[in-house]
Amino acid sequence: MAHERCEQCGNQTPRWDTIHCGSGDGRYELLCTPCFNARIAASSGLTDFENARLDPIRMIDCYGESHQFHFQLRLLGDRLAVDAFELRGELRAGYRFQLIGEADDDVFVLLGRLVEKMRRALSVRHIDFRERRIIDSTVRGHIEWDKSQAGRLPLVVVDGTEVSWNELGQMLMSVEGWQFRLDIADPSEEL
Ligand SMILES: [Zn+2]
Q1: Is the same domain home to 14 and 107?
Q2: Would residue 189 count as lying in a domain?
Q3: DSSP structure class, residue 109
Q4: What pLDDT, on the 0 to 100 scale, is given for residue 119?
Q5: Do 8 and 87 reside in the same domain of the chain?
Q6: H runs (alpha helix) in the chain
Q7: How are strands ordered across the β-sheet holding 91-102?
């Protein structure tokens, strides 16, 4: 697996656990997550911030399929973001979740809330991938970059599975003439 070298501590770090950090002089540095947090803590005066190491967990969805989630904890000034995501090789792929708390919140309380949110999401399926159809009348997911479309069309991830814009369009044709509503929400909101 390709690793990147953190420009602060020199450790070889998997790509998903690094952050491109802009410095004041317009330069970008690649930092591992703990070094990134240490830098933000120092610049925000959060002297008692502790980098918690969150081990991956495995969760089972409502179809009995297993998903392994990795976590990243990022200090963003006075807020703390906890991200949970699946990996394909070194890259994030599949389900992803985020929870935003305060910098001084207990990390394990935030993690507990995030896991509850993940559990709720994994208990619902929106698409029958065998029949290529929308199961009920709601589809939830997130929007990603489709490499084959060079930014012209999105790729959506529904039930942790990539669905091209074209495929989603085909699924909608079974409800031709019906109404729809498109709601867009911040990654940390729950739809
Ligand atoms: Zn580092």
Answers
A1: yes
A2: no
A3: H
A4: 97
A5: yes
A6: 33-44, 107-122, 165-172
A7: 57-60, 66-76, 79-88, 91-102
Q: Which of 110, 87, 187 is nearest to 141 (CA)?
A: 187
Task: For residue range 26-38, list pLDDT tens digits in order.
Answer: 889 999 999 999 9
83 belongs to a structural domain: yes
167 has pLDDT over 70: yes
How far, in Å, is the centroid of ligand 1 from the Cα of 14? 11
What's the CA-to-centroid distance between 4 and ligand 1, angstroms?
A: 10
Q: Do 166 and 115 have their domain in common? A: no
Q: Which domain holds residue 50?
A: 3-122
3-state secondary structure of 45: coil
Q: Tell me how far the alpha carbon of residue 180 lies from the centroid of ligand 1, in angstroms.
A: 46
Do 75 and 50 lie in one domain? The reply is: yes
Q: How many whole angstroms from 1 Cα to the centroid of ligand 1?
A: 18
What is the model's pLDDT at position 1?
59
User: Is 156's pLDDT higher than 80?
Assistant: yes
Ligand 1 center–CA 12 separation, angstroms = 8
Cβ-proximal residues to 72 (8 Å cutoff; 6+ apart), any chain? 16, 17, 33, 82, 83, 85
Confidence of residue 11 (pLDDT cuts 50, 70, 90): very high
